[in-house]
Design a protein that fits this description.
This protein is an alpha+beta fold. The protein has one helix at residues 2-35, and strands at 44-50, 59-66, 71-75, 82-90, 95-103, 109-119, 127-134, 137-145. An 8-stranded antiparallel barrel has the order 1-2-3-4-5-6-7-8. β7 and β8 (137-145) form a beta hairpin. The protein is globular and about 80 Å long.
Length: 146
């Protein structure tokens, strides 16, 4: 009986240590994404306004993606979506430049240029604040990531 009783506490201690280690690792794995960087600063969906846009309306919705080299996306996805033709991010000042070609209701071409900067970069719901312009107008541009 003496031999068996000396081994049981050691095995139980190892078993408890293994369970405790697994719990700690699971807790770290669960909490790690919360503190990790959110990825490329422009990636995601953005909702806001481009004030004074008589052609598209003042509400604007963007979906932006990044494949490691190129920024792509769509402005106002749906039946009248506008593909992003060109986009760039300059980390010096977090400046954003987006260009897209669309058509007005009569079929006339429009070239949109959006220039702004990212505010509150450290937050998940960061914003792009700036201006937009086309052949048919210009105004303030303000979107926040959803």
């Amino acid at each position: 009986m003496q031999m068996g009783s000396s081994r049981v506490p050691a095995n139980r201690a190892r078993s408890c240590a293994g369970v405790a280690a697994a719990v700690v690792l699971a807790a770290l794995a669960w909490s790690w994404p919360a503190g990790a960087q959110e990825g490329f600063p422009l990636k995601g969906t953005w909702l806001g306004t481009w004030q004074g846009n008589q052609v598209q309306g003042e509400s604007v919705f963007l979906t932006l993606d990044w494949d490691g080299k190129t920024i792509s996306g769509v402005i106002n996805p749906g039946t009248d979506d506008i593909a992003v033709k060109q986009a760039a991010l300059d980390p010096d000042g977090w400046k954003v430049h987006i260009e897209a070609d669309a058509k007005d209701k009569s079929g006339q071409p429009l070239h949109y240029v959006i220039d702004g900067h990212i505010e509150h970069l450290e937050l998940p719901n960061r914003s792009i604040i700036g201006t937009w312009k086309s052949e048919r107008g210009n105004g303030a541009f303000d979107v926040s990531r959803q």
